[in-house]
TrEMBL record:
InterPro entries: LSM_dom_sf, MscS_beta-dom_sf, MscS_channel_2nd, MscS_channel_CS, YnaI-like. It comes from the Bacteria. This is Mechanosensitive ion channel MscS domain-containing protein. It is a multi-pass membrane protein. Its main location: membrane. Gene3D superfamilies: 1.10.287.1260, 2.30.30.60. One of its GO terms (cellular component) is membrane. It comes from Helicobacter pylori (Campylobacter pylori). Keywords: Membrane, Transmembrane, Transmembrane helix. It is found in: Membrane. Belongs to the MscS (TC 1.A.23) family. Residues 23-87 form the Mechanosensitive ion channel MscS domain. GO terms for molecular function: mechanosensitive monoatomic ion channel activity.
Length: 87
């Protein structure tokens, strides 16, 4: 029974899980911030960095935006929350 090997394995496993859920949690908390701040709503025309278009849908992880050329852009909420938004 090697306790130090078990502890090391648990530490490595915990690190792997933390890295795996980091982006999911960042996007989730960013969506909460965007919703609470009323930064934008469905149907709004927004400009955020190089992204510009009409908000089609706001999800827990990403926001879908229809660009001027009618292309659908899927932008992570953490990216939108981390940049200035012109609405």
């Amino acid at each position: 029974f090697n306790v130090s090997a078990i502890i090391a394995s648990l530490g490595i496993g915990g690190l792997a899980v933390a890295l795996a859920v980091k982006d999911v949690l960042a996007n989730f908390f960013a969506s909460v911030i965007l919703l609470l701040d009323n930064s934008f709503s469905q149907g709004d025309w927004i400009v955020c960095g190089e992204v510009e278009g009409t908000v089609v849908e706001m999800g827990l992880r990403r926001t879908t935006i229809r660009a001027f050329d009618n292309a659908l852009l899927s932008v992570p909420n953490s990216e939108l929350a981390g940049k200035p938004i012109r609405n």
